[in-house]
Amino acid sequence: MRCLYTRGFVPAICVPSIPALAITEKKTKQPHQQQQLQQQQQQQEQQQQQQQQQQQQLQQQQQQQQQQQQQQQRQQQQ
């Protein structure tokens, strides 16, 4: 509980630790926050997918390079 002292009229107004105003604000803000959270999660997932794709591309490039090197070595041996 938090007690707010007002100027003279009422000695103290005691309210729960979260003032009613904040509660109503939260109710209106929540859907928006949830949307933001979902967007953030989606962005993170997309980033992870992109990173995975990049890693796969890198691996493919490395494999190609190895294959090329092997071919070159074979040619040199011949």
Walkthrough of the structure:
It is a single chain. With 78 residues, the chain is mainly alpha-helical. It has one domain (2-77). Helices cover 74% and strands 8% of the residues. The protein is built from one helix and two strands, in the order ββα. The chain has one helix at residues 20-77; strands at residues 2-4, 13-15. Strand 1 (2-4) and strand 2 form a beta hairpin. The longest helix has 58 residues, at 20-77. The model has no long low-confidence stretch (mean pLDDT 75).
Number of domains: 1
Shape: rod-shaped
Element order: H for helix, E for strand: EEH
**Uncertain stretches of 5 or more adjacent residues:** none
The tally of strands reads 2
Mean pLDDT: 75
What is the first-to-last residue Cα distance?
A: 88 Å
List the quaternary state of the chains: single chain
Question: Strand order across the biggest sheet?
Answer: 1-2
